């Protein structure tokens, strides 16, 4: 089992920045792929970014490329999502996810591949 706890959400004006954190505990390890997803009201959950715990390979959605940066701190077992140049359309609940069986980064875009999920953190961007 892997437990995930997100933090860092809040209300920010358009153009501003936020940093989300996802603290992992339990059966963490180098095989994990950590992903960020988001879900806006009335919409399906969508992929944002992922990072492989071993090697630190990253992959991001086109909609956030150049604005969002995913990173990790091995010592703290924590993954971060630095969100810059935020837009109102970035408003959503952001979820952290993890799974040890994602072997190709592109496969990590699919939410069904992740076995472990955090509770989510709300991000609201005002115009």
Number of strands: 11
Strand content: over 45%
Instruction: Enumerate how many helices there are, as a single number.
Output: 0
Task: Return the structural class.
Answer: mainly beta
Contiguous uncertain segments of 5+ residues: none
Amino-to-carboxy terminus distance: 40 Å
Rg over alpha carbons: 13 Å
Average predicted local confidence, pLDDT: 95
Question: What helical percentage do the residues reach?
Answer: under 10%
Lay out the secondary structure.
Layout: E1 2-7, E2 10-13, E3 18-26, E4 33-39, E5 46-52, E6 58-60, E7 68-73, E8 78-83, E9 92-99, E10 116-117, E11 121-126
Parallel strand pairs: 2-11
Antiparallel strand pairs: 1-3, 3-8, 4-5, 4-9, 5-6, 7-8, 9-10, 9-11
What does the model show?
With 127 residues, this protein is an all-beta fold. Helix content is 0%, strand content 50%. The chain has strands at 2-7, 10-13, 18-26, 33-39, 46-52, 58-60, 68-73, 78-83, 92-99, 116-117, 121-126. The strands form two sheets. Strands 2, 4, 5, 6, 9, 10 and 11 form a seven-stranded mixed β-sheet that branches. The protein has a four-stranded antiparallel β-sheet with strand order 1-3-8-7, with no helix packed on it. A hairpin with a 4-residue loop joins strand 7 (68-73) and strand 8 (78-83). It is globular. The relative contact order is 0.31.
């Amino acid at each position: 089992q892997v437990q995930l706890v997100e933090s860092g959400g809040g209300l920010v004006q358009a153009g501003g920045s936020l940093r989300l954190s996802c603290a992992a505990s339990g059966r963490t390890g180098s095989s994990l792929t950590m992903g960020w997803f988001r879900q806006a009201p009335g919409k399906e959950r969508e992929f944002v970014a992922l990072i492989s715990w071993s090697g630190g390979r990253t992959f991001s959605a086109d909609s956030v490329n150049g604005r969002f940066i995913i990173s990790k701190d091995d010592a703290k077992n924590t993954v971060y999502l630095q969100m810059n140049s935020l837009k109102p359309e970035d408003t959503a609940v952001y979820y952290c996810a993890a799974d040890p069986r994602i072997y190709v980064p592109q496969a990590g875009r699919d939410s069904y591949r992740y076995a472990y999920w955090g509770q989510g953190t709300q991000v609201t961007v005002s115009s």
